[in-house]
Amino acid sequence: MNQSYPVEVRARLDEPLSRWLWLVKWLLAIPHYIVLFFLWIAFAAVTIIAFFAILVTGRYPRGLFGFNLGVLRWSWRVGYYTYSALGTDRYPPFSLDEHPDYPATLDIAYPGRLSRGLVLVKWWLLATPQYAIVAVFAGGAAYTATGGQGHTWQADALSGGLTGLLVLFAAITLLVAGRYPRGLYDFIIGMNRWVLRVVAYAALMTDAYPPFRLDQGGAGTPAPGPDDLAPASDASAPAPAVPVG
Questions:
Q1: Is residue 236 situated within a structural domain?
Q2: For a disulfide at 216, which of 43, 58, 155, 186, Cβ 3.0-4.6 Å?
Q3: Count of alpha carbons within 13 angstroms of residue 42, beta-carbon side
Q4: With contact defined as beta carbons under 8 Å apart, do 126 and 105 qualify?
């Protein structure tokens, strides 16, 4: 599938991986979990502020967008290091910034304008089918923070469920055979990518509805350029007539 989507989730399997380090990564990652707990509370608060900003102006304030993007990047790096993928033994940085040299990266194309009407329904009504799928992939969360309109933000959205089960199988294979099965890795990354797309959509960071497809593997699909973010109505407008002769 070569269709582009504004949420770009990439990863690379950082081999060789330690056979036993995954047994203690939960302990090594505790400082990150503590920081992310507070960051996700802030994420929920920022999203509420952005909700009203979009409703009034049709724009997501760039500074708020950058902060929430940073929280998602941090969460994805920690999840990739720990039990969302176990794809690297490289300790994740304590940073909201982009780290393109890290094996797990995330980017979201900044939207020029967002629909004022869509912001009222997309995070609860339109996203409901996606939540059902994500619940199977991600399962439960270690802790949550409740934002406005009764919406619950999962601070550890990439743990448990089918993803956690398959990561456990990968960990056992790694322990016994010293390798990460490539097919299993691609499937796990695909599920993580789906979850992150839904989180970004529910957080009002894009109006592009998450596709119902499992884009497996680390490369994913490229984020679109500015021209690709133009409203569909612009794309459907007839081209100007070209004089003949």
A1: no
A2: 186
A3: 15
A4: no
In b/e form, how buried is each residue of 121-145, taking b as 16+ CB within 10 angstroms?
Answer: ebbeeebeebeebbeebbbebeebb
With H, G, I as helix, E, B as strand and everything else as coil, classify residue 31. Answer: helix
Read off the pLDDT of residues 95-110 as tens digits, 9 standing for 90 and up.
Answer: 999 999 999 999 999 9
Number of domains the chain is built from: 1
19-44: pLDDT as tens digits? 999 999 999 999 999 999 999 999 99
Domain that holds residue 34: 7-221
Report the predicted TM-score, pTM, of the whole model to 2 decimal places: 0.82
CA dist list (Å): 118 to 123, 124, 174, 225: 9, 11, 45, 22
Q: Is 232 inside any structural domain?
A: no
The 10s digit of each residue's pLDDT in 113-128 is 999 999 999 999 999 9
